[in-house]
Amino acid sequence: MNPVIPLQLLGGISAEEFLRDYWQKKPLLVRQAIPDFKSPLDPDELAGLALEEMIESRIVLEHGDSPWELRRGPFQEDTFSQMPERDWTLLVQAVDQFIPEVAELLEHFKFLPSWRIDDVMISYAAPGGGVGPHFDNYDVFLLQGHGRRRWKVGQTCDATSPMLPHADLRILAEFEENADWVLEPGDMLYLPPRVAHYGIAEDDCMTYSVGFRAPSAAEVLTHFTDFLAQFLSDEERYSDAGMAAMKGDSDQHQIQRDALDRLKNLLQEHMSDERLLLTWFGQFMTEPRYPELVAGEEIEEDDLTAAIEDGEVLIRNPSARMAWSEVDVGLLLFASGQTVVLPEKLRDLLKLVCSAESLHEGNLGQWLADDDGRKLIGELIKQGSLEFADE
Ligand code: SIN
Ligand code: CO
Questions:
Q1: Separation of 100 CA from ligand 1 center, angstroms?
Q2: What percent of the chain is modeled with pLDDT above 70?
Q3: Mean pLDDT of 199-228
Q4: Residue ranges covered by each domain of the chain
């Protein structure tokens, strides 16, 4: 994607300008980001998803059994008929994994790294409904799908921002309104992390939230060090060969500066292993939200070739995530939390596997003639990241 071409989605600015001036910095309101946008789902279909055991959903009632009552799904069919006329909202997470038309929306976001995208959450709100003033720790594009929603945008918050006492929801106790916009279907609001916002349905409304993921520093440290530790033996320890003898004024109980330096060296030696860091990061960022939906099946290489020659089509499992990178020894494919090291000659196949809507004789045929290429496709089917499309 050419970074300087004006994008309708961004209101006629280029990806380059957006990344320079707005991304992670300030809100951007775009009128008719997707002109004539028609929500691929209607409220009943969204409510239908919220009945499923598998799918994460919640309802927030402003005046429920308690103020801002949170109910967690899955819900029963009669839940919705018992809802009040106003002031409640239903939120369904990761709808892109279940509804291909919703996943297609992500095509508009090709100017951002795919591994930063988390999911498309869809909310339905009765008039007056919303989840209260709050902030999120991630970037979000709020696309209006149906009806109108008023968005109030406020201050930039942090961990010390005062919250209402609430067991489950993080609702801001203070909201300093800086902007107030009513969004119509097709309008979109980009919000950087930690900007306070408050969406209120003007009428029956549906909002699509394209959310991004960024690990917290605490997650990076704990997960990376856990990953690293698998490769370290118990014998490798803090060591102090050549330690200086205690001098007249030093105390046996004092941890001296040189001990701290030895410790820092030990950490540095492992923390600066770029290949392990990249491997961990690729695996972490491609970890599927629903690992149980990434279940593969064994396929013989001959059967794979025959199936593709026969016109069958492979698609990415909607629950799988893929990314790739390169290191000195070759290319790394990260597929749903696993790494495969591949030779340079498979670079174009890697890109194809990560980006193609579907793999078929036309784009895959030549790669199946290559032993390594065929093996990779077979492994991805076995691992569950690729699957044959239903007839
Ligand atoms: C909503 O769609 O109601 C909430 C989205 C958000 O504020 O993050
Ligand atoms: Co939010």
A1: 21
A2: 100
A3: 97
A4: 8-212, 291-388
CATH, domain range 291-388: 3.40.366.30
Please tell me the residue having the least CA distance from ligand 1 atom 5: 209
Rg (CA), the chain: 25
Cα(160) to ligand 2 centroid in Å equals: 18
Q: What is the pLDDT of residue 278?
A: 97
Mutate to test the pocket of ligand 1, among 142, 143, 148 (most ligand atoms within 8 A of CB): 142
Atom number, ligand 1, closest to the C-alpha of residue 134? 7
CA of 308 to the centre of ligand 1 (A): 42
**Pocket flag, ligand 1, residue 154 (CB < 6 Å):** no
What pTM was computed for the model?
A: 0.95
Tell whether ligand 1 has an atom less than 6 A from the beta carbon of residue 144: no
Ligand 1 geometric centre to CA of 209 (Å): 7
Is there an atom of ligand 1 within 6 Å of 207 CB? yes
327 pLDDT tier (thresholds 50, 70, 90): very high
136 alpha carbon – ligand 2 mean position (Å): 5
Q: Ligand 1: which of 46, 60, 91, 189 to mutate, judged by most atoms within 8 Å of the beta carbon?
A: 91
7 to 12, 16, 17, 110, 374: CA distances (angstroms): 5, 10, 10, 11, 38
Determine the CATH number of domain 8-212.
Answer: 2.60.120.650
